[in-house]
Amino acid sequence: MSESTNGACMTVNPGVCGFTCVIRARLAEKRSVVIEIGESECKQIKRLNQRLESLTMKELFLPLTRNPVYRNAEASGCHASCTIPSAVLKTAEVAMGMAVASPVRFDFDCDKGES
User: Fold this and answer.
1) CA-based, 20 to 30 A from 57: which of 15, 70, 90, 94?
2) CB 25 within 8 A of CB 11
């Protein structure tokens, strides 16, 4: 993930589907960002990109059932465990200066003997 003075960019490899994408959030106003999700061959993510144009700071803090990112992900047909909606929110937070650009990972590398 990278950040600049007016935005943030995150490359996401969501796993077994193989549909890597790039999420860009650019500061539009003091408390809102323009969102662009690109470079993905996933039909659902392409639909999400068309539906989701911007986010406000207030929308970032809405519960999942009212959050526009998750609502639009559902309307776009995204799988419930798709990591892209969460990555969109993280990228928006960094672009708004509310978070630091730091890697996020999911790894299936636990020892087989552990539960």
Assistant:
1) 15
2) no
